[in-house]
Design a protein that fits this description.
161 residues; alpha+beta; 3-stranded antiparallel beta sheet; disordered C terminus; sushi; repeat; Sushi/SCR/CCP_sf; signal; CUB and sushi domain-containing protein 3
């Protein structure tokens, strides 16, 4: 009679919709199983578990938690509004300026998988900034970028005779 192969039990029953494991099914003694999480979640605990020589798993299984962003700093002369109750992955925040101020940048930002907010922090500019020329300079830069998108620079035409 051939010796019985020692394996660890399948980890599939311990999984959640967010927690993934490879390989599926039984793992031979001295083998390993590797865990990961679905997009928008982060792994808490050890990503690798070893199957011992006697067929038991070492270490506890990890778990997956939502990726969460910190509430960003308030925008001067503006207000940041959460559109969800949490600050988890894919949560959207909006920045709105006080009356008589103009938003420079995007008013919506999204919590990304790396726990940071998309885009750059917007600003709310008022008449004082406009008088100092900052508003006008930034508008000119935006206009130049838009113009380059419409009319990309081309090399001069060379005519051959």
């Amino acid at each position: 009679m051939p010796p019985t192969e020692i394996t660890c039990p399948s980890l599939t029953p311990t999984l959640t919709p967010a927690l993934l494991v490879h390989p599926h099914g039984r793992v031979k003694a001295e083998g390993v199983a590797t865990y990961s999480c679905v997009e928008g979640r982060r792994l808490v605990g050890q990503a690798v578990r070893n199957c011992s020589g006697v067929g038991t798993w070492q270490a506890s299984p990890p778990r997956c938690e939502w990726v969460s962003c910190q509430m960003p700093e308030e925008v001067e002369n503006g207000r940041t509004i959460r559109l969800n109750e949490t600050l988890n992955y894919h949560t959207i925040i909006e920045v709105h300026c006080l009356p008589s101020h103009r938003l420079l940048g995007h008013f919506r930002r999204v919590c990304q998988e790396n726990a940071s907010w998309s885009g750059e922090k917007p600003r709310c500019l008022g008449s004082r900034e406009e008088e100092e020329g900052r508003w006008r300079e930034e508008e000119e830069e935006e206009e130049e970028e838009e113009e380059e998108k419409r009319d990309p620079p081309y090399p001069p035409l060379i005519r051959h005779l």
